[in-house]
Amino acid sequence: DGGITQSPKYLFRKEGQNVTLSCEQNLNHDAMYWYRQDPGQGLRLIYYSQIVNDFQKGDIAEGYSVSREKKESFPLTVTSAQKNPTAFYLCASSIVSRSMYNEQFFGPGTRLTVL
Amino acid sequence: GENVEQHPSTLSVQEGDSAVIKCTYSDSASNYFPWYKQELGKRPQLIIDIRSNVGEKKDQRIAVTLNKTAKHFSLHITETQPEDSAVYFCAAIGVRNNNDMRFGAGTRLTVKP
Known about the structure:
The structure holds two protein chains of two kinds.
Chain A: E1 4-7, E2 10-13, E3 19-25, E4 31-37, E5 43-51, E6 54-57, E7 64-66, E8 76-78, E9 87-94, E10 105-106, E11 110-114
Parallel strand pairs in A: 2-11
Antiparallel strand pairs in A: 1-3, 3-8, 4-5, 4-9, 5-6, 7-8, 9-10, 9-11
Chain B: E1 4-7, E2 10-14, E3 19-25, E4 32-38, E5 45-51, E6 56-59, E7 62-67, E8 72-77, E9 86-93, E10 101-103, E11 107-112
């Protein structure tokens, strides 16, 4: 299960607090992604980055922020503006190529609970 | 953008029976369709994928079929075993870029011994 890691595994936050979720990969992948997973729903894309110092909003970016200062790292900050942050957060990475067949490799996830 | 729908949301089968999960997609330009398996509390892992120039692909007990005209693809698991119990997600690559993967809502498969 190595290659892409997330920490912490469980995270509790009080309302009104910002919190940052860590994602690190040693697969030399250029692209990294953050997804949110809610019960009974598929994975919804929050943000993605195809290269250092660049990232794009996904479908549900409101209330979240990211940075990509290093190729290996793509931290996600859940801000107090996110109205319903309790969820399971998955980070993923993939190569970037002209081919459209880019498998995404997932981290183990962080379960965030807002108290 | 791409929209992926997946059915059924839950599926229960007896050990040894077959299981079929179906997905439809909206963007005719999509041409990569992976299937992920997520066991309870674990990360999704790719189990099989298919490209638009192929109609069917098989890997042991797992097969995927693709109908580009109808814009649907299906996962077939034969001779199911209890360890096949998991949530299965289909996905399709959207058009915004070749890393914009859209997922179905998932199917919770339970294989009863």
